Amino acid sequence: MVDKALGTGGRKSDKDLKIRVKSAKGRKVSSTKWLERQLNDPYVARARAEGYRSRAAFKIKEMDEKHKLFRKGMRVVDLGAAPGGWSQVAAKATGSTDANPLIVGIDYLEMDPIPGVILLKKDFTEDDAPAMLIEAMGGKKADIVMSDMAWPTTGHRGTDHIRIIHLIEIAADFALDVLAPGGVFIAKVFQGGTEHELLHMLKRHFKTTMHAKPPASRSDSAEAYLIAKGFKGRDEDGDDAEV
Ligand SMILES: C[S@@+](CC[C@H](N)C(=O)[O-])C[C@H]1O[C@@H](n2cnc3c(N)ncnc32)[C@H](O)[C@@H]1O
């Protein structure tokens, strides 16, 4: 099924070797292409070599290197945590341990335990999810709320857009409730997709807001991240209906 084929130029260096996957009976063309991309993706290989559960781990690592997000002792909430790459990076960067866990992750998918991380198997959009997260944090404020959540796409652009915006809005609303002053909110958005009102609301509550496209985020994907730094506290006079 898997062929090592020469890349362009015909030189037999390792660099030129590209794994090609032959289509198999019963496998969709899109699955074959996905498999081929995974097998040729240097981040997938690095994740395996460095013990990360996902290539996504490098997205938060790269954003941390560039935007200086994590510090030792910080408390972090990871929304849409499975399979756990971001939580692994956060646990390492904050020095979180099982004896003194600083990271709480939530996902509706089952996850294997991660040292230093409290994991909740729960849909974040359910009404009682925020209270469960706050309880898991021992009632303490968070320094970072990060969300890599995305619904599986339906293929209908309008529907997908509304669903992702809804997820970001409730993540942002949660962040305003739980962040300590100076805190950071990071959320997966889609390029051209951050709603004007949401951005406006975040600009009111944070000192700086910016979009980031870390190198590990595939260039052919519309995915990007919104980073809001320097939480100023919830603006009680503001119009929270915008959130
Ligand atoms: C791109 S993956 C996250 C990868 C993760 N950052 C990592 O490094 O391993 C997105 C995750 O969001 C989760 N998710 C999407 N909607 C959710 C929701 N409403 N509640 C909880 N998790 C959700 C999905 O189950 C999926 O595991």
TrEMBL record:
Catalytically driven reaction(s): uridine(2552) in 23S rRNA + S-adenosyl-L-methionine = 2'-O-methyluridine(2552) in 23S rRNA + S-adenosyl-L-homocysteine + H(+)
EC number(s) from the headed UniProt entry: 2.1.1.166
InterPro entries listed in its UniProt record: RNA_methyltr_RlmE, RNA_MeTrfase_FtsJ_dom, rRNA-MeTfrase_E, SAM-dependent_MTases_sf
Record keyword Cytoplasm present: yes
Catalytic residues as annotated in Swiss-Prot or TrEMBL: K188 (proton acceptor)
Domain of life of the native organism: Bacteria
Metal-binding in keyword set: no
Localization per record: Cytoplasm
BP GO annotations: methylation
UniProt xrefs under Gene3D superfamilies: Vaccinia Virus protein VP39
Ribosomal RNA methyltransferase FtsJ domain sequence ranges: 52-231
Annotated keywords: Cytoplasm, Methyltransferase, rRNA processing, S-adenosyl-L-methionine, Transferase
Record GO terms (molecular function): methyltransferase activity
Chain residues that bind S-adenosyl-L-methionine: G84, W86, D107, D123, D148
Function: Specifically methylates the uridine in position 2552 of 23S rRNA at the 2'-O position of the ribose in the fully assembled 50S ribosomal subunit.
Family according to the record: Belongs to the class I-like SAM-binding methyltransferase superfamily. RNA methyltransferase RlmE family.
Protein name, UniProt field: Ribosomal RNA large subunit methyltransferase E
